[in-house]
């Protein structure tokens, strides 16, 4: 933030906000309602300021290694927002349940193992952030008491292995950043009635019943990530995945560690295909062939990361087939990204015979990024030459491509010289 903007913001909030640095100074209000701690300091330095009445604070925020006093949770009687990020909290006291006015609670990046059941007494709580709490092993069993909870941010809680059944009663929940679905369990049934969900990340351990989650009824769902950790890879698309009914208005989809060699057919055939704007396929994965992704007319970003079994990418990827005579492939795609596709050796180009097939390929593509694909030998020159919208080509960690195109001296530099920005 520019200093002038910062000073102006302080002027506007001088009667409301107070900031403490390591010396206890840097005040901008004599009777603040919002307190921010900016730097690490001792408990005495931070909480002995005579101008701060903790009992009237509406928000208390710290993002540093601040030592939190034992009586803090008893003092913040009127707080609506409490942020204690990375404060090395080994325990959350039961007194937190007294902060009945809390709407937003951020306890991220701390080291506590459990949350007190009293946290479920925060009836008006809307946001709970416990992400990066690596040692957290369980959620409160009475979690259904958080009836107004809209956002549960719990990513990177690696010791958390089970979601309590009461979560299924939080009808207002919009964001859930880590959900575990175990094989031979009814875990996914917890999601059945959560039809306000907009963003969901599921870690799938083995074969599960997607039907029990009734994803097709999640009409508000815009973003979904599915990460598979079964460890066994299938020759065909697993039936439990192929039969899944995805949310109808899905816009962003991530498939991580996908266990089949082919992506599910519903990816391009279901109703959500007309809304999908971002698709990420990440590994480790045994995917060796791709469906007709070019049919995703709304797609703006497409990424392939660690798709290790992909060796050959045919021109069918662009929708160039003998059966097509008039079509447009990836009509709205802006970004195309390949990364760490270790066995990818060939990217097929079009031929003179294909010129008779009137296919407009990626007419809106602006950025092509290829990283860590060391075996890839050449780019599809004819196809890239037809994409007039392409503005940026980034190639990193691809020795064969670097030797062929880099520093304007490679044998095929002229094939990509029409692209305004080339970084190799």
UniProtKB/TrEMBL annotation:
Residue ranges occupied by any Disease resistance R13L4/SHOC-2-like LRR domain in the UniProt entry: 57-402
Pfam families named among the record's database cross-references: LRR_14 (PF23598)
Domain of life of the source: Eukaryota
UniProt cross-references to SUPFAM superfamilies, sorted A to Z: L domain-like
Coiled coil spans: none
Signal sequence interval, chain numbering: none
Keyword vocabulary terms for this entry: Repeat
Xref: InterPro entries: LRR_dom_sf, LRR_R13L4/SHOC2-like
Transmembrane regions: none
Protein name: DH200=94 genomic scaffold, scaffold_2797
Species annotation: Coffea canephora
């Amino acid at each position: 933030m520019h200093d002038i903007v910062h000073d102006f913001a302080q002027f506007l909030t001088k009667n409301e906000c107070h900031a403490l640095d390591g010396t206890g100074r840097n005040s901008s209000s004599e009777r603040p309602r919002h307190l921010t701690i900016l730097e690490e300091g001792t408990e005495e330095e931070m909480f002995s300021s005579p101008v701060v009445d903790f009992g009237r604070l509406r928000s208390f925020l710290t993002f540093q290694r601040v030592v939190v006093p034992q009586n803090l949770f008893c003092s913040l009687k009127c707080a609506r927002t409490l942020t204690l990020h990375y404060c090395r909290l080994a325990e959350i006291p039961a007194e937190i349940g007294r902060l009945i006015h809390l709407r937003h609670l951020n306890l991220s990046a701390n080291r506590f193992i459990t949350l007190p059941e009293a946290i479920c007494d925060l009836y008006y709580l809307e946001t709970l952030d416990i992400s990066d709490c690596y040692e957290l092993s369980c959620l409160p069993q009475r979690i259904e008491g958080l009836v107004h909870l809209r956002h549960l941010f719990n990513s990177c809680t690696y010791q958390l292995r089970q979601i309590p059944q009461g979560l299924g009663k939080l009808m207002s929940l919009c964001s859930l950043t880590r959900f575990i679905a175990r094989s031979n369990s009814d875990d996914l049934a917890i999601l059945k009635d959560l039809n306000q969900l907009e963003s969901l990340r599921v870690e799938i351990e083995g074969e599960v019943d997607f039907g029990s989650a009734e994803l097709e009824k999640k009409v508000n769902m815009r973003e979904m990530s599915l990460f598979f950790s079964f460890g066994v890879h299938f020759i065909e698309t697993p039936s439990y995945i192929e039969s899944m009914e995805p949310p109808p208005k899905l816009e962003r989809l991530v498939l991580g560690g996908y266990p089949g060699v082919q992506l599910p057919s519903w990816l391009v055939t279901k109703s959500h295909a007309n809304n999908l704007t971002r698709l990420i396929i990440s590994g480790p994965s045994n995917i060796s062939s791709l469906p007709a992704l070019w049919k995703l007319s709304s797609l703006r970003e497409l990424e392939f990361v660690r798709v290790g079994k992909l060796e050959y990418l045919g021109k069918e990827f662009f929708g160039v087939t003998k059966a097509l005579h008039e079509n447009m492939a990836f009509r709205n795609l802006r970004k195309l990204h390949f990364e760490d596709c270790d066995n990818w050796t060939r990217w097929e180009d079009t031929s003179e015979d294909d010129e008779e097939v009137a296919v407009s390929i990626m007419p809106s593509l602006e950025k092509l990024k290829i990283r860590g694909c060391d075996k890839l030998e050449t780019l599809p020159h004819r196809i890239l030459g037809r994409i007039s919208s392409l503005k940026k080509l980034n190639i990193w960690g691809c020795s064969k491509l670097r030797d062929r195109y880099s520093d304007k001296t490679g044998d095929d530099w002229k094939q990509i010289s029409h692209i305004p920005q080339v970084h190799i």
